[in-house]
Amino acid sequence: MDAIQDKNKNKDPIKSRRRGKELEAAIMQAVREELNERGYFQFTMEGVAERSGTSKAVLYRRWTNRAEIVLAAVRERIPLPLDEIPNHGNLRDDVCDALRSMNRNASELLSKALFGLVMELGTTTIAEVMFPQGRQSRSMSVILQRAIERGELPARLLTEREMNVPIDLARHELMLYNRPMSEETIAQIVDEVFLPLVTRR
Amino acid sequence: MDAIQDKNKNKDPIKSRRRGKELEAAIMQAVREELNERGYFQFTMEGVAERSGTSKAVLYRRWTNRAEIVLAAVRERIPLPLDEIPNHGNLRDDVCDALRSMNRNASELLSKALFGLVMELGTTTIAEVMFPQGRQSRSMSVILQRAIERGELPARLLTEREMNVPIDLARHELMLYNRPMSEETIAQIVDEVFLPLVTRR
DNA sequence: AAAATAAGAAACGCATCGTTTCTTAACGGT
DNA sequence: ACCGTTAAGAAACGATGCGTTTCTTATTTT
Fold first, then answer.
1. Fold of domain A80-201
2. Contact (Cβ atoms closer than 8 angstroms) between residue B140 and residue B164
3. Subunit contact A115:B120, Cβ cutoff 8 A
């Protein structure tokens, strides 16, 4: 009886079968670890099964194939839209900070899996994987609204295209070079392109 | 004896073994066709051998693995820097035309293979595959120089970052959506971003 | 004409996919 | 507390494709 209670609490001591959410969470974690350590092409279902202490049959009962399980694991970690967008008191620092946060988020897991996913799924695009519910992000409009309120910018309506310039250029850099942008690159995007564009008369 | 004759005849009425450059060109062409028709994940060495009428052994004598043969075939078709950059008599049309030519070049073969290659090679980046000898393209500086000579632009020195804005944004679109840019998108990049940026006072 | 070279056919071992079968642990209703 | 149901986990399967090897023979070179 005590033994049975123990079993339910800890899976390690003796064999205990995890189920449902607990099991699934362990699998998703194993998928991410395998992706990070081995990359998309070394990634195998056997590896995931072994790492998560289960079997392939369990995986294939939940996801139809390799791409689906990777997609599920990656989607769980797609950066959420921030509730709090740091306010540095000036437009330049706010935008630089937004790009730095792209550095932190993007270079982690996504880049390891993104291209492989798009290839293997065949029909999908990067945009669909990265922005399952639409591309426009709230952060730039918040940052720009603040700048207008501060009087840094004229109260002009920017187009989606304009306001996304720094984020698009940053994403472009990240995809091309597959590493975090340097501070110099961030400064170029903001100082040579974005600020001149939005503060022009 | 008849059986032997038959075997030899079955393959080809005239049995001729291609060699060297001729054979290699046929293989490279087969690689590109397989890539285009089947995509990177359906692409197989068997398929290439069959399509080019040779055998896997021949392929592996020349290229060490799947990624290498794809890379070789893709590199042959990486768009050459244009000798003649069309002159439309005004900056806007010149830039739009440059973006349209990216549409034509990029959406063909590269997008089918690029991501797969980067994944499989593991160590490589998109930039390395696309720009084996450096990123800066001559076309934008030619276009801008003409605009200056026409008096459309002040004779100001643009940074690399500035002058690459339309090309970078276009490449970003192509990678994200994996299809040619619409005329609307091209117009947005040029009219809402690039022209305001370079013609500002 | 003989020797050297390289094309092409065929089979191999291996890894991995996705599937299936079977046993049994854990759960849930009574 | 029991018992029937559900789902986990183990193990093997066939199929596919990689990269390799062996062998025959067409073509080139000497």
1. Tetracycline Repressor; domain 2 (1.10.357)
2. yes
3. no
Torsion-angle region of A150 (φ positive above 0: left; ψ -120 to 50: alpha; else: beta): alpha
B interface with A, Cβ–Cβ < 8 A, is 39-42, 115-116, 118-120, 122, 125-127, 130, 159, 161-162, 165, 168-169, 171-172, 175-179, 188-189, 192-193, 196-197, 200-201
Amino acid identity of A143? Answer: I
Which token pair is B150? Answer: 């026409």
What's the rounded Cα separation, in Å, for the pair B18 and A45?
42
Q: Do A197 and B196 touch (CB under 8 A)?
A: yes
The architecture that CATH gives domain B1-76 is: Orthogonal Bundle (1.10)
What are the tokens at B94? Answer: 């010149």
Sequence-distant contacts of A102-105: CB under 8 A, at least 24 apart: A102/A167, A102/A170, A102/A171, A102/A174, A102/A181, A103/A174, A103/A180, A103/A181, A103/A186, A104/A180, A105/A79
Residue-level pLDDT, tens digit, chain A, 201 residues: 333 333 333 334 446 888 888 899 999 999 999 998 888 889 999 999 999 999 999 999 999 999 999 999 988 877 666 778 899 999 999 999 999 998 887 656 777 788 888 888 877 888 988 887 788 778 899 999 999 999 999 888 899 999 999 999 999 999 999 889 999 999 999 999 999 999 987
pLDDT of B16-40, one tens digit each? 888 889 999 999 999 999 998 998 9
Domain boundaries, chain B: 1-76, 80-201
